[in-house]
Amino acid sequence: MGSFLSGTDSNKEIDIPIFEINDIPGKGRGLIARSNISKGTRILCERPLFTVPSMEPSLLELVLAARLKALPKASQRQFLSLHNRSPGKYPFSNIFNTNALPCGSGSVVGGVYPTICLINHSCIPNSHHNWDEDAEHETIYAIRPIRAGEEITITYHQESISAIRRAFLKESFGFDCSCSGCSRSPSELQESDARRLQIQKLDENIVNPSNLISRPNESLRDCRSLLQVMDVEYDVYAEALNARTYYDAFQVCIAHGDQARASVFADRAYKGYVICEGENSPEAQRVKSLGLKPAAHVSFELCSTKWKTTRGMVPKSLDSVQFEKWLFRE
């Protein structure tokens, strides 16, 4: 217990597998932690059996048949053993569509993995999946402490209110979500839905170009509000979403010449990406470099120079409350 709470994984040194594959009632197979896993631990790194761009089912079936034929027999069996939400016509396509993960946010190319595709969904996951374009592999990192015996989960869809999420999951993957986020009491679920809608609204406000140009103070306030709401909704472990929000705050500041605050926001985004994607992920390294040289960003002074500062002007004598007020220009 001590090593778990202190942020170390005692089993790494003795090469005990960090997870095992088990049958989970109502879910099929899934990954279970064999030992306590600390936040920021890389659970799994895996190359896809193959990647395929989005296409209509009949053509996808032909492409997948050719890809499968080229695989070793063991890999063929791994693919065919994956869950198929709608057996029948186009069996290869249905297995692929049930299991494929996008190769990057918004990508039309999907990849299928023998182990990662066994990880089940939660609307409040304990792990984060990420495609590394440079290394061409998918990684799974723990974004909160995971106890031995606990299921390892990622999110297939985390936007919008519970009813919309559950309808999407039922339609796309064929299951009724009963995760901790969807199993709240009616009053708690109503509060959660209100937070999800607020998260959507704040996110829309932050990326609104007119706000960035003419109301940057408002954009920063929205960033802080978003971080606070996500902390409540995700039990303080919204690591990937927090990293993105800190990067949004970086862009607001750097567009108005504020290198001091931008460097702090970039550093916070970097630390978030390290937890979710690892030290060497391309995004973590990109944001780290911006923290050191914020003026190198393409949006430097794009909107104005009214907040102009240098990186060396970050105050050193403020307490944590005062520093947050300075940082968000309150």
UniProtKB/TrEMBL annotation:
CDD domains the UniProt entry points to: SET_SMYD
- What is the superkingdom listed in this entry's lineage? Eukaryota
A Pfam family the protein falls into: SET
The residue ranges of the SET domain are 17-157
Q: Which residues cross the membrane?
A: none
InterPro entries membership: SET_dom (IPR001214), SET_dom_sf (IPR046341), SET_domain_protein (IPR053185), TPR-like_helical_dom_sf (IPR011990)
Coiled-coil boundaries: none
Q: What is this protein called?
A: SET domain-containing protein
The organism of origin for this protein? Pleomassaria siparia CBS 279.74
The top of its lineage is:
Eukaryota, Fungi, Dikarya, Ascomycota, Pezizomycotina
